[in-house]
Amino acid sequence: MPMDDGDKIVLHEDSPAAEDKSLPLVLMIHGLTGSHESTYMRRMAEKLTGRGYRSVRMDMRGCGAGETVARLPTHCGRWPDVATVLQHLSDVYPDRAVQIVGFSMGGTLSLNMLAEMGHMPVGNLQRTLAISPPIDLVHVERHFQSKLGRHYDRFFVRQLWSQNLKRLKLHPDMAPAEPLPPPRRLRELDEVVTAPNGGFRSAEDYYVRTSPAHRLASIRQPVTIFSSEDDPIVPVDPLLRNPLSASIELITTAHGGHLGFLARRNGDPDFRWLDWRIIDWLEQKSPSPGAGKPHYHRAQTQSA
Questions:
Q1: Which region holds residue 174: left if phi is over 0, alpha if psi is between -120 and 50, else beta?
Q2: Residue 119 in 3-state DSSP?
Q3: Sorting pLDDT into bands at 50, 70 and 90, what band is 212?
Q4: Which helix (H) or strand (E) holds 13?
Q5: What percent of the chain has pLDDT over 70?
Q6: pLDDT (tens digit per residue) in 40-53
Q7: Within the chain, which residue ranges are assigned CATH 3.40.50.1820?
Q8: 227-275 per-position pLDDT tens digit
Q9: CA-to-CA distance for 254 and 94, rounded, in angstroms?
């Protein structure tokens, strides 16, 4: 689907054999370096269609099937892309409520959108689930300087630099006048690629302006956030120290890693604890926020 600036977003619909049209449509948004083909996206789409849900997997700009149809790279400030997709879904399915499941950066985009929109409806969006979202990019970048974080820093740099080189081959008019040396750090890549292509003055400017941490208190639409206290990529501290609005339910676990959340035998059909909590959330088996103050509790993953 086209964006206002000429780029395109690719959506992948998964239709159940026996669709229950009383159920909400589920929009899933992947994380950094992910796509509609990411394991967690494909796994959830299969589980949802098996239960009668129609789901839509969104490829961010330049990701997955969107690699050839976007000149500009995605970043944490591209929340209008999510709003545009929601409006499109409300046009196609005017009588269907939509619920977002955003993984990592997909959750960040969703939180930024909700902070900007306040009470204003966004298509047929009913509520949002953000899983392991980075909410303070400065904090994450500093974490990547630590011994624990350096491995992930190098991983993301390699993935994003490869993605950037492919994009420049497809759109040579976007290439800088002088060839750029391969960046060694994610911050270097954000300085020479993300910031200038996104209209930011610097990597620091990008981090500050697109981090939802300081705006979580302004969110007025229902949100549930799942985060793990042992996440090696996105530290949970900013979620615990920044004020949250009464519309936010925060659930943390002692263990779970980043989008992992595995569990021992505990009554779920398989060991993917998070998958079944997403389904519980969709079926409203979790507490609902909005009772005058933020709702926070710790859950047990019974980690394997």
A1: alpha
A2: coil
A3: very high
A4: strand 10-14
A5: 93
A6: 999 999 999 999 99
A7: 10-136+213-299
A8: 999 999 999 999 999 999 999 999 999 899 999 999 888 888 999 999 9
A9: 40
pLDDT value at position 68?
Answer: 87
Please report, as a single letter, which amino acid is at residue 12: H
pTM: 0.93
The DSSP code for 96 is: -
Given a contact cutoff of 8 angstroms between Cβ atoms, the answer to whether 260 and 228 are in contact is yes
Token pair for 66: 């969107």
N residues, the chain: 304
- The superfamily in CATH containing domain 10-136+213-299 is Alpha/Beta hydrolase fold, catalytic domain (3.40.50.1820)
What pLDDT, on the 0 to 100 scale, is given for residue 228? Answer: 94
| 273-282 and 39-50 helices, crossing angle to 10° | 50
Distance in angstroms (rounded) separating the CA atoms of residues 24 and 206:
34
Token couple for 168: 């420049």
Q: Which amino acid is at 62?
A: G
d(CA 274, CA 292): 27
Beta bridge partners of residue 130, listed in sequence order? 102, 225
Cα–Cα–Cα angle for 81, 84, 49, rounded to 5 degrees: 90
How far is Cα 116 from Cα 82, in angstroms, rounded to an integer? 12
Phi, psi at 129, each rounded to 5°: -120, 120
Most distant CA pair in the chain: distance in Å? 58
Contact 10, 69 (CB under 8 A): yes
What are the respective helix, strand and coil percentages of the chain, to the nearest 5? Answer: 40, 15, 45
What's the token pair of residue 61? 């700009």
